[in-house]
Amino acid sequence: MKVGKIIKVSGPLVVAEGMDEANVYDVVQVSDNRLVGEIIEMRGDRASIQVYEETTGIGPGDPVYTTGEPLSVELGPGLLEAMFDGIQRPLEEFRKLSGDFLTRGTKVDNLNREKKWHFVPTAKVGDKVIGGDIIGTVQETPLILHKIMVPIGMSGEITSITEGMFTIIEDICVLDGTQKIQMLQKWPVRKGRPFKKKLNPDVPLLTGQRVIDTFFPVAKGGTAAIPGPFGSGKTVVQHQLAKWADTEIVVYVGCGERGNEMTDVLMEFPEIIDPATGESLMKRTVLIANTSNMPVAAREASIYTGITIAEYFRDMGYSVAIMADSTSRWAEALREMSGRLEEMPGDEGYPAYLASRAAAFYERAGKVICNGSDDREGAITVIGAVSPPGGDISEPVSQATLRIVKVFWGLDHALSYKRHFPAINWLNSYTLYQTKMDHWMAENIDPEFAKNRAKAMTLLQEEAQLQEIVRLVGRDSLSYEDQLKLEATKSIREDYLQQNAFHEIDTFCSLQKQNKMLKLILKFYDLGVKAIEKGVYLKSIEKMPVREKIARSKYIEEAHLEQIDEIAQQLEADMNKLIEEGGILDA
Question: Global pTM?
């Protein structure tokens, strides 16, 4: 092991000389405490190292030991239900060794080397396999079958494979008599795992959130950003997506989050019951916690750790969602390290390579055909929260993100102040997957779904213009048709777009229910327009008792959706009755 010598310490940045044999992104051990660090710049024999632990007490002359390996994560059984820090050190094991706060220099294996797992072969002796092929399975949790794959780069004929209880470092399979395979694999975090082919993302990631699924859907294998000021509900939206999105694996990265918010996540997730299976949500979740008081350099690494773990499960053929909360704090870590390296700053002090680093992260999303002999499909959907200072999305991190992602859920402080949640502003949010999703909705839900969505969005946009007039000259100056339009859009906003994350029924809404609810509200508008044309009083329409039932349709259970059809029939009957009774409009 080559030994260098420290010549400068600047917070988490350490400069060492005598490192001519090392390479950029190699992992090193700093000082006699063997603190974990990573080389981020080489100049001659001098290496600039970002240290992932507290550097207090380290000074010039202390040794630096090179390992010759890049920063890597350990992949294998034991990932699910675990809570890791930014460089995949298990927090529970840390707590057992050193208490509630991380003690620097503490060494612990990323994955448990002693626990035995029941390995069941799915391949047999004589089979020819290549990198990515599944050779067996381990029932890691009641929800997830962990598929053991041939490491990338290995291939050959199976000469030995054994069923039984093994640790992750014991040999379970031998290729060509010499190549031994264990359940444990390692992969460098900054290098994307390979795949055969990237596919067109054409299936929506269903979240159960009406404003997202109906108006701004994201595709499985797509990318989305949630920019918004503090307190506008980014974290709650991500919790809802983690809980309800129809993915098989969730990777949640708390990147520079407040400690109390991550505590909420760590306490709540084990208690949340996965609605599809009745088991704890943690049974299919990996948590990566790097709070704002943890070393800043590890924050920069945390999202790479998360996406690499997500790629590993994608390669098994699973659909994975990774939540990064928040990439603004990841960018702040980049800015701090860039400043200590004395690099030329870009906008607002962020490094010039901010946009390319963000793109490199988001581009690891996608729906792919995985490596291996079979053509199994896997997908990673990346959903990143952005916390622009003061809610100003013209700042560099938001702009760099919006140039890359295809879905923008713009959170609005004014909406959250009015207690409208999720506070996604329907006038400035967008999705670039709309055409593909409309095709899917027409084939799988309702041929009229796209038309109804477009009609509802048009009404909402027209409402914004009418509200300007109302503010100037009052509502009574509007025509009866326009006043009815305001009533209908109020119903869309309050009864459809608003959704209570803490109500046992309203927290999740299936696409079938969304379709029926939207049709019901639009039916009220269409019938109301006809009634006004026939001379019915607007106040008579506004005071119809059935409107209360329309407003409460969001609380109808999924098993009783026929009740929404009954409300639609009652609405039509009541409106026809109003028309028959007649009503002469005020002059």
Answer: 0.93
